[in-house]
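Practice set, problem 2.
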Amino acid sequence: MEQLNYKIAQLNDECRQSGGRIGRLMLTEGFKVTFPIVDIAEINELVATYNDFNEENDPHSEHDMGFFDYQNYKIIWRIDYYDIDLNYRSEDPSNSQITTRVLTIMLASNY
């Protein structure tokens, strides 16, 4: 199980660090209307470089969620696993051939 979680964490890190080039990047409407594009770019960079994983926000060691403060707002990001067509949850998130990762960035108040 630990090896499987490591593989999932590695794939999640690649997705997050790619800034949306690997997988899909989703920004909630509440997030998009709150920040101008320059702030959104900065927040994307903070998500890409996020490394504050701990027992509270990463209990399964998969690097699939994090949160931080930005200009008096709490930002949450999370990665969900879907099949290639985005119709169903992935059967095996450790297999990038059958999994599309969706990175969502949102305000905590929208969660």
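Problem 2, part (b): a different protein.
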Amino acid sequence: MKNKIIYDLKNKIKLNIKGKNINRFIIRLHKNKIELLKCIHKNKEEIDIIIYEKDYEKLKQIKTIYNVEKLNSYGIIKIKKKLNLNKYLILSIIIGIIILKTLTSIIFDIEIIYNDKETREFLKRELKNYGIKEKTFKKNYYQIEKIKEDLINKYKDKIEWLEIETKGTKYIVRVEMRIIKETKETLENRNIISKKDAIIKEIKAEHGQIVKEINSYVKKGDVIISGNIMDNEEIKESVPAEGIVFGEVWYEISVTYPFVYQETKELNNKQEIYVLKILNKNIELTKNKYKTKKIEEKNIISNNLLPIKLVKQKQTETENIEQVLTTDEAIKKAIDKGVEKIKSNLKEEEYIINYKVLNTNIKESELELNIFFSVYENITDYQTLENIEEN
């Protein structure tokens, strides 16, 4: 086996010999101690032979009238030839493997899985102190276990359980925080009053005495649920009134909208890709390229001395829309804009009851609407009984 490997690596060449009396040429090779490794007779005047490459110069000196043509080469010489022909391809593959190996050894993202934002920020700061952060090389298993142990020991009163998982070029951090029972807040004796002028639509009282009826009109500051429990026009008991009051309140807003409507609309297609930036040229390392897109970008690898950097992009496909609207279309768009403006300030359980366009002002390039809204809204506010007594 070893001898075969050595034989295969030795430099050999295959030659085609043409001429009269080929056998005389073969005898001449033997006399000159040129080892004939293989001999294939094609006809009386043509033969293919394989010899060691070191004997080729000697063969050329004795070939005389015979025509000699190189057909192939074997061994180290053939390997060198192939390497030389493909040197740029091989170099590109080696560089690509080095870049890929480097990129897969770097952490580009850290995801902390926990509902509370403050807890996520707290963990992110602490992990950063231990080198668990973006654009750093991955920690090994033993380093991560040591970091977990240190954090749990450092915050015994806060952290119940902690797990750091490496997934590709990302750390996934899962945590279970200790539950600390909070003491219930002691409420002062108080009334529930109206926050705004409104018509009462719903009263959900838990403690206190309801002093206003559904569909009654109240002004800002009127008492709706009293903390004073009355009996025969005397205060029997004072308590902190608790409950929620919903009422119909009113708004009037002004909205303008252009007749020439332009919008860049975000579509549902999203992707995260890496982009190589060389001078002013961007090379996206992806096949699915969006024609128009919204981009959020983060540097991964950059150098102040070189005009090259690798960035991670969050891309959202977009569509550019341009319309020339009629008056009716512009009014509808303006109403929709007004509705969205009101809705953006509403909380859970609150909604628009009704709306009405009061007047329309048409200008050269836009129109202006005044819109009246009636809204179902939480009008709950509080007033302490001590303040009333002082007043």
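Answer key, part (b): The longest helix spans residues 87-104. The chain has four domains: 2-81, 106-177, 187-259+325-391, 264-322.
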